[in-house]
Amino acid sequence: MARRDREAGQALPEYVGVTGLVLLVVAIVFAAATPVAADVSEQLLCAVSPIVKEDGADDCADSGGPGEPGGEGSPGDGYSPPSGDCEDDVTFEFVDKPESQWDTAVVQIDCVWYPGPTICFSANMPEGHLDRDRGDRVYLAEEIQDFVDCVLDGRGGPQENPNDESCANAMPTSGEIDADAPPKVQVGCRELPVPKGCEAEWAAYQGAPEGQERAARSGELSNCISEKYASMEPPCVVEATGHVDSTNIQFLFLRWGETNGTLIEKLGDGRIRIHILKGVEVGAGFSGSDVGGTPIAFDIAGITGYAEDYTYEFTDMQKAQDWIDWYKKYSMSAEIVAGGGGRNCPPMLSYCPPPPAHMPDVGDVMQLQDEEPEHHLVATSTSDIKKVKLKGGLKWGPKTGAVELKGSVEAGYEGEIQVEDRQWSDGSVMATYTSSDIGGFLIGAELSGKQPFTKDKKGKEDSSGKGKGKGQLGAEWKGTTSTSVLWNPDGELSRLIIAMDDQVMKTLYKAGIDLDVVLPYGFKATGGYSKQEEEGTLSKTELIIDFNQYPELREKLGPKIDEIFPRNDDGTLRKGDVEIQGQDSEGGELYAAAEEHANVRRLTYDMDRVTEGGGYGLKWQGLDLFKVDFTSVDENRALNESSFEVIDVDGNKQTTSPAPQCRAKDFEAPDGYYTSEFSAPPTPTFSGGSSFDNP
Questions:
Q1: CB-based burial label for 63 (10 Å; 0-12, 13-18, 19+)
Q2: Among 76, 103, 365, which residue's Cα sits nearest to residue 212?
Q3: What's the 3-state SS for 172-213?
Q4: Cα angle value 314/315/318 (rounded, 5°)
Q5: H or E segment at 272?
Q6: CA quadruple 574, 575, 577, 582: dihedral, nearest 10
């Protein structure tokens, strides 16, 4: 029989479901056609659920502790009298929960107390249990072995694999704890710091006497920890494979083109996400090839260079493969037919050459639309390329290390940012600014507000014009930054994430900028970035503020976020240029909030990239009269290291590695997750949301 080493771990899903079972039982009572059914339901309510404290609802259990082993009052249910030794007996009890109308059911097995899991009561309840008085609910463990095994299943010590069945259901111990140790407990297969936001549950757990009192509180603590971590850490991409095809056509001084890409990501909980991307068309007015140009880039801090993104999610690799196979056939057929290469010509053409017999027609495309395999469209997104403008002076002066970079961006600076508006299937909305220029960094600095913009020695705003030459930070900039804000379906602030890759850190250090001054907590150290001939290591740091964890921060940070991320009445992002005022700014709400509340995630990936290209054209007197360039890019990225730093309930910083979402328990798809309805994904011919017969 398993013994005391099974007492640590995570809240059972069935423990959380006690209230749901109570409601189910109540429904059975109301639906019962006979008094017998009602009586049985009421007894089940008393057996598997905490005792109702309201008047007239406590007759189903006697008060007092367990009776004497083998007492004469024991019913004849076929079980032998208990031994009186906790190593051999199983004892059922209830623990008072003052703040609730329900008490908490607990059970002692092998001298260790556990919260009573509902599923074990309902599936393996000892025969005659409902007929016994509360004090007589003590059994020999060997005679109710199925119940014992059910409770102890998955309560082992920590393991690397979060899906390990030996520890998947573990919870914090009900035994002795070290009062001087940092607040850290086992939740499932992981030992996790107890985060801010769980102060009440931690205090109740820590202050409860060991045994049945602490067991009753361990489930509540586990539930709080699980909820907070799920809220404060976004999904983690552990593998990514991207493919981009880009075509640019130039005629005299005009050029146009199209770029289409597919990014396939594997998340830490096993889900597969597929991004179907349409690229930004390049022409006059788009100058920043790193942001608004083609091809689409799968930057570590975000995807850039795209205009439209349909994101699909699968929990089964085969379903993902089936959908990809269908999409390849559908998009190719739609493009051929729309381009006049099929058996049906578009209406505007007066002549249609007869195609080969195997070419698709409109009917083939329509049939493919009806044959889309099961899928889950998790989000759609559109993006535009806009300007980020700095008004006034910005200087981190006078020298920047051995190369003597000036390290300043002067008044009148303009950069490019990608402005993304993402609509999630659950009704939440996310807005993101991504940049491969200093513009994205300036947004993060503006949010931080910790003296990011200074004046010259005379106290006047520096207005000497754009930066010049290699001595200017803008010209030397490398790396990608992104700033994202998530609003929940009710329109409330949910999460703020500022992400920077390691190249950004190196750029700032090279320019001699003191990150302790211009950026909030979390962006203090740089890792080892290397990139040798399209193969190397990429690192990213994410500062995360979870407004569900700290609701009071919505009022403090909301006004500044609303100013930088203006929204329309429907909650979508009002896309436009961003103007930042270069001026002295003492303090800053985000800076202070980050010190006390921000969680920091660091990710390091191994990457490689393969690029193929070519072109053809016609020249006339030295000019490119007509020119076509095409590029194909394949990129792979695999996570090799991650960490997640949180502020614990004592106000201290603790780091856990790997980050919880980077090695998470397998995602289980809820009912109705998949659909077979046509989702109209973007193709080289059509934008998303349109079908072939209804553009």
A1: exposed
A2: 103
A3: CCCCCCCCCCCCEEEECCEEEECECCCHHHHHHHHHCCCCHH
A4: 75
A5: strand 272-279
A6: 50
Tokens of 627: 């020119």
Distance CA(243)–CA(631), nearest Å, equals: 10
Alpha-carbon distance of 191 to 9, in angstroms, equals 8
What separation in angstroms does the CA of 159 have from each of 155, 156, 175, 186, 626? 11, 9, 20, 10, 62
Q: Determine the Cα–Cα distance for residues 310 and 243; give it in Å rounded to an integer.
A: 15
| Beta-carbon contacts of residue 285 (< 8 Å; ≥ 6 apart) | none
Three-class DSSP category at 595: helix
Tokens 């934008």 belong to which residue? Answer: 687
The predicted model scores a pTM of 0.78
pLDDT tens by residue, 179-196: 889 999 999 999 999 999
Amino acid sitting at position 252: L
Six-digit token string for 383: 């993006």
Q: What angle do CA 638, 639, 640 make, to 5 degrees?
A: 115
> Distance (Å, rounded) from C-alpha 654 to C-alpha 659?
12
What is the DSSP pairing of strand 89-95 with strand 302-304?
A: unpaired
Place of tokens 């997104």: 381
Whether the pLDDT of residue 585 is over 90: the answer is no
Q: How far apart are CA 328 and CA 333, in angstroms?
A: 9
Structural Rg of the chain based on CA atoms: 31
Give the integer Cα–Cα distance in Å for 509 and 517: 12
DSSP helix/strand/coil, 147: helix
**End-to-end alpha carbon distance in the chain:** 66
Cα separations (Å) of 396 from 63, 441, 524?
A: 72, 14, 17
Residue 424, Cβ neighbours under 10 Å: how many? 17
Nearest to 383 by CA among 267, 504, 299: 299
Task: Tell me the per-residue pLDDT of 201-252, one tens digit each, with 9 for 90 and over.
Answer: 999 999 999 999 999 999 899 999 999 999 999 999 999 888 777 665 555 5
Residue 607 tokens, joined: 């990457």
